Amino acid sequence: MTKSLYGLKQASRQWFDKLSTFLISDNYVQSKFDHSLFIKKTSTDFTALLVYVDDIVLTRNSMSEITHIKTLLHHQFQIKDLGELKYFLEFEVARSKKGIHLCQRKYALDILEETGMLGSKPCSTPFLSNTNFLYKTENYLDNPSAYRRLIRKLFYLTNTRSDLCFTVNLLSQFMQEPTKHHYQALQHILRYVKFSPSEGLFFAADSDIQIKGFSDSDWVTCPNTRRSTSGYCTFLGSFLVSWKSKKQSTISRSSTEAKFHALAATVNEI
Question: How far apart are CA 65 and CA 40, in angstroms?
Answer without folding.
Answer: 9
